[in-house]
Amino acid sequence: MVVDDQRLVRAGFGVILGAEPGITVVGEAGDGEEALELVRRLAPAVVLMDIRMPVMDGLAAARVILSETDSRVLMLTTFDSDEYVYAALQAGASGFLLKDAPSEQLVAAVRSVAAGDALIDPSITRRLIENFVTASRPQSEDPTVLNILTPRERDVLRLIAQGLSNAEIAQRLIVEENTVKTHVSRILMKLDLRDRVQAVVLAYQCGFVTADHR
User: Which residues, including other chains, have CB under 8 Å from residue 91's CB and lie 6 or more apart?
Assistant: First the structure.
């Protein structure tokens, strides 16, 4: 489902996604309130959500959607909306996409989030977390929460926080990609996290990873 207050933007994303095999745009909304009604009725796998909208903004809508439904939220953003994006990270958004992203990146992002992965784009997500978890906010989580992880799981978490994909982590650690997937699943289960984005946030909030030591 596509949510944006600009009709042409909604239409453009709808055309791009609707032309892809295996992707169906089940609905469109112009504000967060309308989006909530449609999500509850249509139960889309992924909600592509603009942050700044009238009536109810994307952040408020995302919080409700993520707390009440199984839909995943992929936020549409621009580089000037950092504070909103940080809040969306905490709410559990599965990732972020620049509004002017190429069509192939849009399609890949939607497929990735629908498959249960989080879109960790180093050019957006990591930069935002560094700016707002390490610089603007003090350490807010007890670092001992990570003691439950094995040394190898901590290695994987550190690389996740750098924005690396499973394939890149496997190459870095010289292991099979399936082994990395297993480690990631265990990390999320042990720390009771929704996805990789929340794992990145927690890593910075605990001081486990900082902007100076990536």
Answer: 59, 62, 63, 66
> Cβ distance 73 to 62 under 8 Å?
yes
Q: What beta strand segments (E) does the chain contain?
A: 2-3, 28-29, 46-50, 72-77, 95-98
Q: Note whether 57 and 51 are within 8 A (CB).
A: yes
Helix (H, G, I), strand (E, B) or coil at 17: helix
Provide CB contacts within 8 A for 90, sequence distance 6+: 201
Say which DSSP state 109 is in.
H
pLDDT digits (tens, 9 = 90+) for 157-199: 999 887 777 888 999 999 999 999 999 999 999 999 877 777 8
Residue 57 has phi, psi (to 5 degrees) of: -75, 170
Question: pTM of the full predicted structure?
Answer: 0.70
Amino acid at residue number 30: G
C-alpha 58, offset from chain centre = 14
Residue type, 71: S
